[in-house]
Structures are given as structure tokens and as C-alpha cells.
């Protein structure tokens, strides 16, 4: 068994972020060091509380922090249409166990990475990129210390929050531009082109119910809500469970296929703010800055998610 990947998860729980936490907690290939949260699906306070609660039911004892309360320039836009007023609407919210780490997410990110050797820690970002942008400005050595950034965001086809932009990028496109241009050792972008294949179909839901634990029942009720909200607001028959794809890709890189590209984030377009302009063919004359996910092995993905949930405290 190779060593587990040391990972920091920066997220905005959010139903699919919650499943990303559970997968990271349940798979032995991931050594989750910290959960940093950022305002996005809901306010910074709500997503921090949610992360603490989900971390508790997952049996984790890692630091959980609150982060940026708003984007770099714009006001925060949350997504109650999808995640509800609490950010984890549907089943009763588990009570948080313990307290938040007193540090801001930017500082927890920096201190956790810099406490390890260069190349030891990977960052998974499944919310707006406000924390990561400020962290790499405050500590530029992050680009040398962090082995890989895997982020859920963007799309080379079309958006989900506007015709051009995906939500995580659209909330804070300036931060996304700072992250995509920072010069990481490796940056993998997992966008809608791939996560729209990670659908919680009735077969998947049956397998999750088949785990038969209190936790799997909670996940099933989360997905009940997520199914209805994605149908009502996004027109999906079955909901795309975006964020765990990033964790699965760290566990087993074969889960996604990628292509190298230059990704430019639009920050000035009247109609295209937040668009991830993806140049696979060098047409813009810019050096590639990302590995962009272009395919998903959704069978392997759901196997990992279900195994991860089944491995957690009953
Ligand atoms: O567009 C989907 C992304 O936005 C997911 O990360 C979801 O949790 C929301 O943050
Ligand atoms: Ca998210």
C-alpha cells in the first residue's frame, strides 16, 4: 500500500461538498489534514457549521475553519435554490461536535501546508476560490509546497449559473483568475463537462441505501433534497454530485481523463463573467496552466463513493 495522500479540503458544504468530506474520510488513500471552508453555497458561517457537523458524523478529528465571507470584489451570492437556507437542507442538520479552529481558513491552509515537506500536501477545492487566492498571495511559496491542486469548477462547454459560467468560478472570478495563474506544480480542473456525468441515479441511490447505516440514511435524505432542488432549478432528472469527483481523482487518477490546456478566467465580460475559456490547442499563445478533466469513469467513481460511506462509523 502506497502512502496515503495528505489532503486539505477547501469547501462550501453544500450537499455535494458533504459527500466529498465523507469520501475523503472513508478512503484510506486519503489522509485528510484539515477542512477549510469558504462562503459560497451558503454564508461563511453556515458552511463552516455544516463542515463541522459533517466532519463529526464522519468520525473525523481534523481542524475545521471558517474562511472568506465574500469574494475579492463582488458581494457574496449564495445558492439556496440548490442547497437550501441552511446549506444542507433536507434531513435534520447534525449538531456540530467540537469547535471551529480559531484560525481563518487562509491561515489554516498556509500553516498546514508549510508544516509539511514540499510536495507532501495536495489541496482539493470544491467551492469558490477566495481562500486559495488569498493564501497564495499571502504565502507565494505555496506553489512550490503544494503537490497538486484539484478544483471543482468551470467548464469548457457551458455554465450552470449563467450560460457561460459555473457557480464556483462565477461567485469569485477574480479569485479564480489568481488561482489559475498562480503557477502550481499541477492544477487539475474538474468542470461541469465531467461532473454532469456523476449523476445520483436510482441505481446509485439503491446502493447507498443498501449500506444500511445511519450515515447512509442521512446521505440518502440529503440526496432526496438535492434531487428535487436540481430538478427544479437546473432541470436534471438525477442530480450531478460534483465535488466528490475531485477526491476520487486523487484516490484513483484513472477515474478521470484529462487534457492539458490554457484556462483563462473571464473577469470583465458583461455576459461572460466567470467563464473558463479553455484553450486545448494553443490558439491564444498562452502556456498551458491546467489539466482539464474531459472524461469520467462513473462506475469507478460511484464505487469509491459508496465504499467510502460504507467504511465510516455506522
Ligand atoms: O457548480 C457546482 C459547484 O458549485 C459545486 O461545488 C457545488 O457544491 C457548488 O459549490
Ligand atoms: Ca461546493
Question: How large is the count of helical segments?
Answer: 13
Bound molecules: alpha-D-ribofuranose, calcium ion
Annotation, overall tally of beta strands: 9
- The sequence of SSEs as H and E is EHEHEHHEHHEHHEHHHHEEEH
Question: Which class do the helix and strand fractions yield?
Answer: alpha/beta
Average pLDDT level = 97
Strand proportion? 15-25%
List low-pLDDT spans: none
Strand order across the biggest sheet? 3-2-1-4-5-6-9-7-8
Alpha carbon gyration radius: 18 Å
The largest sheet is: 9 strands, mixed
How do the strands and helices of this protein lay out in sequence?
Elements: E1 5-11, H1 15-26, E2 30-37, H2 44-57, E3 64-65, H3 80-83, H4 105-114, E4 121-125, H5 130-138, H6 142-145, E5 146-152, H7 167-171, H8 173-180, E6 187-190, H9 192-195, H10 202-211, H11 214-234, H12 244-251, E7 256-265, E8 276-279, E9 290-296, H13 298-310
Parallel strand pairs: 1-2, 1-4, 2-3, 4-5, 5-6, 6-9
Antiparallel strand pairs: 7-8, 7-9
Helix pairs in contact: 1-2, 1-12, 1-13, 4-5, 5-8, 10-11, 10-13
The chain binds alpha-D-ribofuranose and calcium ion.
The site of calcium ion has 9 residues, from helix 1.
Amino acid at each position: 500500500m502506497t502512502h496515503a495522500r495528505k489532503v486539505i479540503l477547501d469547501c462550501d458544504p453544500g450537499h455535494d461538498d458533504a459527500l466529498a468530506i465523507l469520501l475523503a474520510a472513508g478512503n484510506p488513500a486519503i489522509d485528510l489534514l484539515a477542512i477549510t471552508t469558504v462562503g459560497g453555497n451558503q454564508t461563511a458561517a453556515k458552511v463552516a457549521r455544516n463542515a463541522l457537523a459533517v466532519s463529526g458524523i464522519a468520525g473525523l478529528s481534523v481542524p475545521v475553519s471558517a474562511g472568506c465571507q465574500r469574494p475579492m470584489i463582488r458581494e457574496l451570492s449564495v445558492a439556496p435554490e440548490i442547497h437550501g437556507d441552511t446549506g444542507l437542507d433536507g434531513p435534520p442538520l447534525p449538531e456540530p461536535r467540537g469547535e471551529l479552529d480559531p484560525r481563518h481558513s487562509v491561515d489554516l491552509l498556509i500553516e498546514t501546508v508549510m508544516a509539511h515537506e514540499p510536495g507532501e500536501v495536495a489541496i482539493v477545492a470544491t467551492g469558490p476560490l477566495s481562500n486559495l487566492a488569498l493564501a497564495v498571495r499571502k504565502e507565494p511559496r505555496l506553489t512550490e509546497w503544494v503537490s497538486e491542486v484539484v478544483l471543482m469548477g468551470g467548464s469548457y462547454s457551458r455554465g450552470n449559473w449563467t450560460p457561460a459560467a459555473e457557480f464556483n468560478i462565477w461567485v469569485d472570478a477574480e479569485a479564480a483568475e489568481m488561482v489559475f495563474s498562480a503557477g502550481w506544480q499541477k492544477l487539475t480542473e474538474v468542470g461541469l463537462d465531467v461532473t454532469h456525468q456523476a449523476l445520483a441515479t436510482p441505481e446509485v441511490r439503491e446502493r447507498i441505501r443498501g449500506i444500511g447505516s445511519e450515515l447512509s440514511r442521512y446521505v440518502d435524505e440529503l440526496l432526496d433534497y438535492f434531487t428535487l432542488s436540481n430538478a427544479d432549478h437546473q432541470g436534471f432528472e438525477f442530480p450531478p454530485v460534483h465535488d466528490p469527483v475531485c477526491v476520487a481523482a486523487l484516490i484513483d487518477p484513472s477515474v478521470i481523463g484529462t487534457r492539458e490546456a490554457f484556462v483563462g478566467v473571464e473577469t470583465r465580460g458583461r455576459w461572460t463573467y466567470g467563464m473558463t475559456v479553455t484553450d486545448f490547442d494553443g490558439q491564444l499563445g498562452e502556456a498551458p496552466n491546467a489539466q482539464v478533466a474531459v472524461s469520467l469513469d462513473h462506475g469507478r467513481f460511484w464505487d469509491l463513493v459508496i465504499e467510502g460511506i460504507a467504511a465510516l462509523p455506522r
